[in-house]
Amino acid sequence: MSKEQPDWPEPIVRVQSLSESCSDSIPERYIKPSTDRPSSTSSNFDDANNIPIIDLGGLSGADHRVSSSILEQISDACKEWGFFQITNHGVNPDLMDRVREAWRQFFHLPMEVKQQYANSPKTYEGYGSRLGIEKGAILDWSDYYYLHYLPLSLKDCNKWPHLPPQCREMFDEYGRELVKLCGRLVKALSINLGLDEKILENAFGGEEIGACLRVNFYPKCPRPELALGLSSHSDPGGMTMLLPDDEVPGLQVRKCDNWITVKPARHAFIVNIGDQIQVLSNAIYKSVEHRVIVNSDKERVSLAFFYNPKSDIPIKPIKKLVTMDRPSLYPPMTFDEYRLFIRTRGPRGKSQVESLKSSK
To answer: Which intervals carry biased composition (Basic and acidic residues) (predicted)?
Structure first.
């Protein structure tokens, strides 16, 4: 495993600044190879060809038929798509709107204020504009803010923005709500795998799970057909809870050989399986490639909340899911080791997790 770099290999350029200065072209560093560019045929989001929307309203209710139906919908979505949207999830819609708007306000603060929170590749925590430390890499058309929420030993509110006012308290409340929601969903996934409801949660580290937030800011792009807001990747963690920009679609999910543009439902979260659940489930559930497109007319803000295993425990397929017919596909690796592996290389489709498969 290579050592972490102390700093970025090249001077950081804020994409928001480029967006404000570029009128009809973008720097070559942001132009993707022709095979990776969004195509006019990849932007379809008809309701019949989109990720499932699941109403969680009766998941914990007394009617077992309703609960069983919801569990079945979640199971089908995990196997068919690796992505689904959830409504009636228990998080206050007003809180969702306020948190997203607060982050939008942050990205429109003066640059000198935002620069106080500039990040490094050592932890990525803070205000950033690139993923991966490969010198000369083709970059994504986005800025972001990354912060730790759990474990408490990593949570440092001084590294969270102090503007707009009361935003730290709001982000803290949002984190508490999403940890609870992710816990409910992990129990559902565990049941669907034929396990006790606490097995997956315990494999994550029980009450010592990790959680972090990355807020994505995608500025207007004068040549959206040449760039991507976020390159194709699967999420390295356990499960991701995305609060999308419900006014501006941008997330695309790979389905077979097609890219499907997700149509966000109002006040819904978009949930997706991460690489760690793929490993724990012995690839019964698979993480799925996704990417983000940009446009020339509107900026876009989204919040990705990552629910992850405890960073220092070996993650490997759950024993009950390893059989003669389905041998263990992955050797043990801690999430810290895997995260460093990912950070060094940057977004690379599904190649990261696939390269871990045991050779035996």
So the answer is: 26-35
